[in-house]
Design a protein that fits this description.
Elements: E1 2-10, H1 17-25, E2 33-38, H2 45-55, E3 59-61, H3 69-80, E4 83-89, E5 94-95, H4 99-108, E6 118-127, E7 133-135, H5 138-141, E8 167-169, H6 170-175, H7 186-196, E9 200-212, H8 227-232, H9 234-252, H10 256-275
Parallel strand pairs: 1-2, 1-4, 2-3, 6-9
Antiparallel strand pairs: 4-8, 5-9, 6-7, 6-8
Length: 276
């Protein structure tokens, strides 16, 4: 079992993946293993990964013949790898040199490290495809309040934790598996699971990564819609709420009516935070 497993899923990543892996190799903390699965790329990504794996024994290409997408790809890797701690890594970002060191240091300061599920979540800088800064802080850009990190009801509907920033302990990993296939994304599921099992999301109020925004982003970070825009999309709202309810009801045991009323409450709260 390795100490820290960095999990990456890649798809047609030839434009950015060398820069990302190089930033991992440049980390001040060197005690890690990188596990990468390729999601049936049609460009030179598999060749690039093979070359890196030949040069550094800490880099492992994990064979996978199934096309899974980001959510299922990351969760599949989480099931395959045994480690004390886990980090997720997108294929197109750049990690700043102390990302691992500072995330692990904060995790290891927690007195309940061994018996509670924990996730450490640093902030990031938003950058364009050429790494020019768009916003110095993702949290400020998205109007995320640090007080929301511990609000388990908030995380039923919104997620202020990017998967590519997460450092989770073994307890958080074990509780997150198995996962409901219809959950929105792996990061939102992990945050929800940790909070509803008495764990904590621990913010690290420092930008430790360059979060690249470009036309090929699977998720990216769209602007916060106005309250009117949210309410006008009633059909999509109801459909998304039903998916959120179905994937989390075994955790919360809330009725659908109470669940929906809670969502309206948090929509109003998010709107207020974004526009005050």
């Amino acid at each position: 079992m390795c100490q820290l497993a960095i999990l990456m899923t890649a798809y047609n990543s030839e434009a950015y993946i060398q820069e990302q892996i190089t930033s991992i190799l440049s980390q001040t903390n060197k005690d890690w293993d990188l596990f990468v699965r390729d999601d049936q790329s049609t460009d030179s990504t598999p060749t690039i990964l093979s070359q890196f794996a030949k040069r550094d024994r800490r880099i492992h290409v994990v064979p996978d013949a199934v096309k899974r997408g980001a959510k299922h790809g990351f969760m599949w890797l989480l099931q395959q790898v045994e480690a004390q701690f886990y980090m997720f890594c997108d294929h197109d970002d750049v990690w700043l040199p102390t990302k691992i060191e500072k995330s692990l240091a904060l995790m290891k300061q927690q007195k309940d490290l061994m018996n509670r599920p924990l996730i450490v979540c640093p902030d990031v800088k938003l950058v364009d495809e050429h790494l020019q800064v768009i916003a110095e802080s993702y949290w400020s850009h998205k109007h995320h309040r640090l007080s929301m990190f511990s609000d388990r009801y908030y995380h039923l509907f919104y997620n202020n934790v990017l998967g590519c920033t997460m450092l989770l302990n073994r307890k958080a990993r074990d509780l997150s598996l198995p996962y409901p296939p219809d959950t929105a994304m792996h990061d939102s599921w992990l945050a929800l699971t940790v909070l509803w099992h008495g764990g904590r999301l621990i913010p690290l109020n420092e930008q430790l990564m360059l979060y690249r925004q470009h036309s090929g982003n699977t998720i990216g970070t769209p602007p916060v819609p106005s309250l009117f825009e949210q309410l006008s999309r009633i059909s999509r709202l109801m459909k998304k709420t039903k998916v959120q309810y179905d994937s989390s009801r075994h955790l919360t045991h809330l009725s659908y009516i109470k669940f929906f009323l809670l969502k309206l409450k948090y929509m109003l709260r998010i709107h207020w935070d974004a526009h005050k």
